[in-house]
Write a structure and sequence with these properties.
The chain has 14 helices and 15 strands. The chain has an 8-stranded mixed β-sheet with strand order 6-7-9-8-10-11-12-15, sandwiched between helices. The protein has a 3-stranded antiparallel β-sheet with strand order 1-2-3, with helices on one face. Strands 4-5 form a two-stranded antiparallel ribbon. The protein is elongated. About 3% of the residues have low confidence.
Length: 563
């Protein structure tokens, strides 16, 4: 419709369809919870039923009769030496420990051994019925709570309630879900094998109740992770919107005047000061968060149906600064997969630009190599440093990110299950993350590495990244201020003139040798000089690698060529 039509009618129709999609998504989420709840109830009832069946089977073996009220009848009988058999009778089961003890004592003194056998079976039947009743009592309110508002609008509050519903079902179905749980700290291959071992019904139940677990499991299919993470995204966005809507409006009487010494001064009112103290920071935080999540959702709302450019949300949470992993194109089926690791300043509220870079690379790669499909992934699966002159001088952020990135890349390869050309693209501090992952995981399934605007990749030589040196590519724009990255601090005293000799050689920068230097031993490709520092922000050239010749060269490398 977007491709073929324009005008008010088309815009209105697209809006209605988007609303319908959201309604179906809500229905799917709630029906998934209902299914999981019924499965949990069935699991609990089945456990009680097995105990009941076993007790009845034992009763039949011992020629006892189980009555409709759960009591057990036993025939006349006794020891062979007894002149006359003891009379038969009927007994009911008990679940109270004291009552059970008294009944057992009476049965032991009875001359008819059938009494003792009947009492044991009756107590087991009573225990099974009690367990079934407890399951019914537990699950009835949980299932009755899974109802929607009696209207035709799926509001943010409706979505916020999904989280509450999910928590309720998860608590009640703990035993059932535990029986389905994935391997603890499983490898991507173990995760994949676990998922394949589940029935379709169990997959749906676990995904509905634990989308956070499924969405983060490396090795699972992209469409499964996408479904789980979109559910998390929608619920979190709704929760933040509900909280944002609950914040009272900013007072209109922001200023007042006070007169002192004959002069009037403009000051904030007490009412506004109180509002600002209570709500201003939280409102700004929620506004930015809702906007960023809306930008992620926008990729789905504006998707034009081209399967090679379909968005897949492979990871999402709002912990700390937020983490997002989004693929453009399906990495499970693509011939080429590029994973872009952003650097300093990356966070949820700035995610639109990072995703746009992945989109730009995918589009360029598709035109560069139209005979093969390319999936372009933006991986913000770590807490990136936020300050160029502060946090970015510390390798601790990369140290914490290298294993998660390695696990993700291995998971992409596992889920693909075929021959894929894999490239990792690190920008700025993200190149250090990528470099450390390659350095410390020799078996990482990566074919090519691209490092742009790099302060160093954690090694001094391309061969130390465990892929062929001629598959390691680097470029830094002439006007990129990253060129001024200093050598490692502490190598020499700051006041010692020899400390500055490193600035005049060709290789030593903050995190190992400059990957664009001859001493590093990798490959380089040409990029434009970029805008001069200060002409469009502090260091504009540092963000211009997704333009012109630089983008074209990266797309060539990502599709297996040489620029």
């Amino acid at each position: 419709m977007r491709e073929a039509l324009s005008g008010d009618a088309a815009t209105a129709a697209i809006g209605k369809i988007q609303q319908l999609v959201e309604n179906f998504q809500y229905t799917q989420a709630e029906c998934g919870l209902i299914s999981a709840a019924l499965n949990g109830f069935s699991h609990d009832i089945e456990a009680a039923k097995k105990k009941l069946d076993a007790a009845i089977a034992d009763a039949e073996t011992n020629k006892l009769t189980v009555n409709s009220d759960g009591s057990v009848s036993y025939p006349a009988g006794g020891e062979p030496s007894t002149p006359a058999p003891a009379p038969g009778g009927k007994t009911s089961g008990q679940t109270d420990p004291t009552a059970q003890a008294l009944n057992r004592q009476a049965a032991n003194f009875d001359p008819n051994p059938g009494f003792r056998l009947a009492q044991e079976c009756a107590d087991r039947i009573a225990a099974a019925l009690k367990e079934a009743t407890e399951a019914d009592t537990k699950w009835a309110p949980k299932i009755q709570a899974l109802t929607a508002d009696d209207d035709l609008t799926v509001s943010a509050r409706d979505w916020a309630d999904v989280e509450s519903d999910t928590r309720g079902v998860a608590e009640a179905a703990d035993e059932y879900l535990h029986s389905l749980a994935p391997p603890e700290r499983g490898t991507p291959q173990q995760n994949a094998d676990w998922w394949k071992s589940l029935s379709a019904e169990d997959r749906s139940a676990y995904l509905s109740v634990h989308p956070d677990t499924i969405g983060a499991l490396n090795g699972l299919p992209a469409d499964v992770r996408d479904e789980a993470n979109r559910s998390i995204l929608t619920e979190k966005r709704a929760q933040d919107q509900v909280e944002l809507d609950s914040i009272p409006p900013e007072p209109t009487n922001k200023y007042t005047y006070i007169t002192a010494g004959g002069y009037a001064s403009k000051v904030y009112t007490d009412e506004w000061m109180e509002w600002n103290k209570k709500y201003a920071d939280r409102k700004a935080q929620l506004t930015d968060s809702v906007k960023a999540m809306g930008q992620i959702q926008m990729r789905y709302d504006t998707f034009n149906g081209d399967p090679t450019a379909r968005p897949y949300l492979l990871g999402f949470d709002d912990k700390k600064l937020g983490h997002v992993i989004m693929a453009i194109g399906n990495p499970d089926t693509a011939d080429n997969v590029t994973t872009y690791v952003p650097g300093t300043g990356a966070k949820l509220t700035e995610i639109d630009g990072a995703i746009r870079r992945a989109e730009q690379l995918q589009t360029k790669a598709a035109s560069t190599d139209p005979l093969h499909s390319t999936a372009s992934i933006m991986w913000l699966g770590y807490d990136a440093p936020q300050d160029v002159m502060g946090d970015a001088m510390d390798p601790a952020f990369a140290d914490a990110a290298k294993d998660p990135l390695s696990d993700f890349l291995t998971g992409v390869d596992t889920a693909h299950g075929g021959n894929v050309n894999s490239t990792v693209l690190g920008h700025s501090y993200g190149s250090l993350v990528a470099g450390e992952a390659l350095r410390d995981h020799p078996e990482l399934p990566v074919d090519n590495a691209i490092m742009v605007g790099s302060p160093g990749v954690g090694v001094n030589h391309a061969k130390d990244l465990n892929i062929p040196a001629d598959h390691v590519w680097a470029a830094t724009a002439k006007n990129d201020l990253i060129n001024l990255a200093p050598p490692p601090s502490g190598a020499l005293a700051p006041l010692n003139p020899k400390a500055y000799m490193h600035l005049f050689d060709d290789h030593s920068i903050l995190y190992g040798y400059d990957p664009t230097s001859d001493d590093f031993g990798g490959q380089t490709f040409h990029v434009a000089d970029g805008k001069a520092p200060g002409s469009d922000g502090f260091m504009p050239a540092h963000s211009q690698y997704w333009e012109g010749e630089s983008l074209a060269n990266m797309a060539t490398i990502a599709t297996g060529g040489k620029p």
